[in-house]
Design goal:
Blueprint (H helix, E strand, L loop, with lengths): L1 E5 L4 E5 L7 E6 L2 E5 L5 E7 L1 H4 L13
Length: 65
């Protein structure tokens, strides 16, 4: 899993798996879902992230190393 925040575009990108993307679905005007050929969620993008979340308080919990 990979989480990236780009402050220049105010975008959060969360990648759950690095599979080939078969379809990109717009859930609303600021949220994009990417799925593989079987319909499994591969990634989600939140545009205008600072308007939807508190990007300054990003926390990762339950991390398995």
């Amino acid at each position: 899993m990979k989480i990236q925040y780009c402050d220049d575009t105010d975008t959060i990108y969360i990648e759950f798996r690095a599979d080939n993307i078969a379809e990109t679905r717009g859930l609303d005007e600021s949220t994009i879902l990417e799925v593989d050929a079987e319909g499994n969620v591969c990634a989600i993008t939140f545009e205008h992230a600072s308007e939807q979340t508190d990007v300054e308080q990003l926390q990762v919990q339950g991390m398995v190393v």
